[in-house]
Every structure is written in C-alpha cells, then in structure tokens.
Design brief:
By secondary structure, this protein is mainly alpha-helical. The protein has 17 helices and no strands.
Length: 290
C-alpha cells in the first residue's frame, strides 16, 4: 500500500489531476446548506426549499431514507419528512456525500457501469451505517459519508484519466491481477490515494479522509481504524454476499484484523454476522427499484 502522505506520491497525483483542469469544485448546494445549518434560525422548511432545487439530490436522499438498511421505521415520501425524521446533522452528512457523487457522475460506457457504481456506493454507505448502529459506534452519520465516498477515486480515474483507466483494465485482463494491483502498477498509486487527495483539497475531516484511504486495509489507519474497518467490512460484504458488488472489487481481500478492531472475537462469528445481513441487503436493492 502506498502512502499518500509521501511528498513524491502526493506530487504525482497533484500533477495528474491539476493538469486535467476541469475537476468539479465543491457543489454550491453544500455551501448553502452548511451555512444554513450553522444558523439557529434555520427551519426544516428553509432547508427543504434549498434542497428541492436539485431534484437529483432529492431522489437520492429519499432512496437513502427508504433503504431498509438505513433503519427508519416508516416510508419517507417527501423531502420535508426526510429532514424531520432523519435530523439536521444526518441530513448534512447525507447531502455532502450525495452532492459530491452527483458532481462526479459520469455516463455508462462499455467498460463503466455508472448505475452499478451508484448502487454499490449507496449499499456500502447504508450498510456501514447500519453496522455502526448495531455495534453502537457513536457517529454513524460520518460512517455513511465515508462509505458513499469510498470509491470516489474510481470515478475520477474513469472520467478524467481515461487512458490510464483503460490501461488498468487491460492489465487486469492480460496479467490476471486484481484491479487494485493494476492501479499501482499502472499509476504508481490507487483510487484510494486519489480519494484522499480530493477530500483533503475540500477540507474534509481527517478521519473521513483516512477511512477512504485505507478502506482496503483498515488496520493501517493511524487514528480512525474503527471507522475505516466499518467501511471495509460493508465493502467486503457486497462481494461476499454477491449483492450490490462492483466488478472493480473482484478478489477483494478481507483484512482479518477487523475481527479484533470491531470486537467480533472470531472469524466464525463474523461470518455469521455477515450472513445475517443478507435479507437486508436484498431488501435494500428492492427498495431502490433495481
């Protein structure tokens, strides 16, 4: 695993991305909503008025709210009800993550399935939040944000570094190696490194950035190992259960250190825990009409 904190690596990523010149800035809706939420005078109606200007975001917030994995007790049909039942702070977390996913949205191509990417990202986020709640992790809203953004670097690869993206796919096919290894061989860094570069650029909290950086190997995280482990486990479960899996994660290797980091005690107990989530994973896909 490469260390994005290494100056030469960081400079390499910066040069590649800054040469693009068209990377989206933080969406305006995030700035507007953050300012509103910092004011004690902001009402649910005020917040809904701003959010409703972006119907793509409204649709995605409702998809999150109605996922069985998110755990709300009843169906949410309006953004107004979503804000009330989810709460301002959680809405902020959801909105920030969804807005960034929307800003980087790309089209389907023969070698990129945008819908599968979205389903995988949403399932990882909602599953990670549900697991965090079940394990009594105190900040499950932040877990959702990190989960939704964990593969943001892949969209950047596909959309802005497409020649390198195609070279990675060719290496996977010709050399029979994982996408992750092909990224390192082709670029000298991975989609995780791209993710933390962007999140640091946008001033995300370090623990969220670190969870994105180490979602393939959470035991390497320095401060937020539990948060990174929750994202890693949810990501792994999509492959283990073959529900909401994304082909870029083929041959995903479980970091068995999460057994102790998350307090499971044994691999057998973890396996039983994972299988217990299978009905919820299936219901999640049904809830978003896929």
């Amino acid at each position: 695993m490469l260390d994005v904190k290494h100056p030469e690596l960081k400079d390499s990523i910066r040069k590649k991305l800054l040469n693009i010149g068209t990377l989206p800035s933080v969406p305006q809706i995030i700035t507007e909503v953050s300012q509103m939420l910092d004011s004690d005078r902001t009402s649910a109606a005020d917040l809904c008025k701003v959010i409703s200007h972006d119907q793509g975001i409204v649709t995605k917030i409702l998809a999150v709210a109605n996922s069985p994995l998110y755990g709300l007790p009843r169906r949410v049909s309006t953004i107004e009800f979503a804000v009330i039942i989810i709460g301002f702070e959680h809405i902020r977390n959801i909105l920030v993550a969804l807005s960034l996913v929307e800003a980087f949205k790309t089209k389907n191509t023969p070698d990129w399935n945008q819908n599968a990417y979205w389903v995988h990202s949403l399932l990882t986020a909602t599953a990670a939040k549900r697991i965090a709640d079940d394990l009594h992790y105190p900040k499950s809203g932040e877990v959702f944000t990190a989960g939704l953004l964990h593969d943001l670097g892949l969209v950047v690869l596909q959309r802005y570094l497409n020649p390198e993206f195609k070279n990675i796919l060719s290496a996977v096919e010709s050399d029979q190696i994982s996408h992750f290894s092909a990224e390192e061989n082709t670029l000298g860094f991975t989609h995780q490194d791209i993710g933390i570069f962007l999140l640091e650029r946008w001033n995300f909290p370090p623990y969220i950035s670190e969870a994105v950086l180490y979602h393939h190997k959470p035991s390497l995280a320095e401060k937020g190992r539990v948060l990174a482990s929750l994202i890693h486990l949810a990501d792994y479960m999509t492959q283990r259960l073959s529900i909401g899996a994304f082909d870029w994660d083929n041959n995903f290797e479980l970091d068995e250190n999460i057994i102790d980091l998350l307090g499971f005690g044994s691999m057998q107990y973890l396996e039983e825990f994972i299988l217990g989530y299978e009905p919820l994973f299936k219901s999640h896909l049904e809830s978003i009409n896929l």
